[in-house]
Design a protein that fits this description.
mainly alpha; two-stranded antiparallel sheet; 7 helices
Length: 157
């Protein structure tokens, strides 16, 4: 695992498979940041705005928890974490000419306000990919699906 300090664990540039040759670099989240991502997800589910919830709930009610699609949704490591919170906290850099952090500018003499928020402009596939990269670095055990995966991880530590 390495250092217990999140700031000391960062990925190499990760190629974006859907937009070569672009890359992203992510870091491990702190304990508070991962808790904030879980809290943001809980708030979204409670307010009814989680993106996959309607379809998953429909399948659960129709087919029960033994349905393969429901089991797939339950097994998703991102379940329980807000993807945007993961991206905003863990994305260090990317190869795009846009700033990662939101920039707000106001014009003098007028009330014009300009907001550039490239993370909000990302499509669903990009948000999902980056969130998974952050969570993989932060909580790799969530991505182990077999006993063999766990054994390999233990040996690499």
């Amino acid at each position: 695992m390495g250092s217990p300090f999140a700031s000391q664990t960062q990925s190499d540039p990760i190629p974006l498979p859907f937009d070569p040759p672009h890359t992203v670099t992510v870091r491990r989240l702190t304990g508070r940041e991962i808790e904030a991502a879980a809290e943001a997800h809980r708030g979204n589910v409670a307010s009814g705005s989680a993106r996959a919830w309607p379809a998953t709930l429909r399948r659960m009610l129709e087919f029960g928890a033994s349905d393969p699609d429901v089991q797939h949704a339950i097994a998703d490591p991102l379940l329980g974490y807000d993807r945007y919170a993961l991206v905003r906290s863990g994305l260090v850099s990317w190869s795009y000419p846009l700033p990662i952090k939101q920039i707000t500018t106001t014009s003098t003499g007028t009330t014009a306000i300009s907001v550039i928020d490239a993370v909000e402009d990302l499509d669903d596939e990009a948000v999902d990919f980056i969130a998974r990269a952050v969570l993989t670095l932060t909580k790799p055990a969530l991505f182990h699906t077999t006993v063999q995966d766990v054994e390999v991880e233990k040996k690499s530590d």
